[in-house]
Amino acid sequence: MKELPAPVLAPADFQQRLLGWFDKHGRHDLPWQRDRTPYRVWVSEIMLQQTQVTTVIPYFERFMARFPDVGSLASAQQDEVLHLWTGLGYYARGRNLHKAAQVIVDKHGGELPQTLEALAELPGIGRSTAGAIIAQSRGQRAVILDGNVKRSLSRLHAVPGWPGRPAVERTLWALAEHFTPQERLADYTQAMMDFGATLCRRGAPDCPSCPFNDVCVAHARGETRRFPESKPKKALPTRTTLMLMLCDNRGRVLLEQRPATGLWGGLWSLPQFDDDESLRAWLDQHAPGSQLDPPQATFTHVFSHFRMEITPQSARVERLDSVGEARRWYDPAQPDRLGLAAPVKALLTSLAPFSLTAAPGP
């Protein structure tokens, strides 16, 4: 494969068409475009990774209200950061955002680094995200290649292969570099993301409205749905787990904090067990005299790389004086500000008759 296939347009023509479309149809009033600072752009870019703009907006606004600057984020407890991330998914993003804020305060004087290299060294910031932060917040020339840009360039040039393959990704980076201008970098970067998100969409691209429909190779071939080519599929493995909903006589539910790394790292969850035998053994040891209710219906929670079949198991205990380390009682009627795994949050809000009010949104 050639490193750079013949571009369909000269850079100036490509930029003129894209920015002309953006000026008329792009998004110009997103929350992070108002009072634009490196910090606000950074938080928005992390939230927007694998998440749609409409989903991100309310999370971003709540996050900014609580953490208006990098110092307030760095000094916060991880639980509060993850609480505001609950429901947004991909929780490593929230943990890395918190860690990066602490690094920025400790090593960069509370200011986001101004170079791509220094930004990319921070937790959770890769090459494309660093480029977006630089271009959007400082107007400096930087290249981006997020999922939207990969899709658009793949279709425009009918680039064969899955973009996750290193050789294909190198080709797309070369094309992105070729088209990136020297001016209007913030607008150009937003335009590339908007174009892929609203026009050159994954499932139903709006080819008649596209400013490149006369030169798009995939469109000319009638193969827009083929590009970009999909990752070779593997059957998602399935895991099973029992989630213990242990309630005391005050209607509180026992939670335990997940390890800092791995699945739902740092979040609070219901105690999990591989089978009924291990669950009962745990109860015998930690909550003797507890009463088990019939298990609830199993439901499935899908992750990017596996499926989890969850069976909730309710139990009641009159009293449990010591819950041990990394565990706490949680009152659904007066919920603490904790980061909760999404299926756990759903279970806690459905704990009638124990729950008097639903837990608030993230």
Automatic annotation (TrEMBL):
UniProt keyword terms in alphabetical order: 4Fe-4S, DNA damage, DNA repair, Glycosidase, Hydrolase, Iron, Iron-sulfur, Metal-binding
InterPro entries the UniProt entry points to: A/G_AdeGlyc_MutY (IPR005760), DNA_glycosylase (IPR011257), HhH-GPD_domain (IPR003265), HhH_base_excis_C (IPR023170), HhH_motif (IPR000445), MIG/MutY (IPR044298), MutY_C (IPR029119), NUDIX_hydrolase-like_dom_sf (IPR015797)
Catalytic activity annotation: Hydrolyzes free adenine bases from 7,8-dihydro-8-oxoguanine:adenine mismatched double-stranded DNA, leaving an apurinic site
Domain HhH-GPD: 47-198
The name this protein goes by in its record: Adenine DNA glycosylase
Organism whose genome encodes this protein: Halomonas urumqiensis
Entry's Gene Ontology molecular function annotations: 4 iron, 4 sulfur cluster binding; 8-oxo-7,8-dihydroguanine DNA N-glycosylase activity; adenine/guanine mispair binding; metal ion binding; oxidized purine DNA binding; purine-specific mismatch base pair DNA N-glycosylase activity
Lineage: Bacteria, Pseudomonadati, Pseudomonadota, Gammaproteobacteria, Oceanospirillales
Enzyme Commission number: 3.2.2.31
Pfam families tied to this protein: HHH, HhH-GPD, NUDIX_4
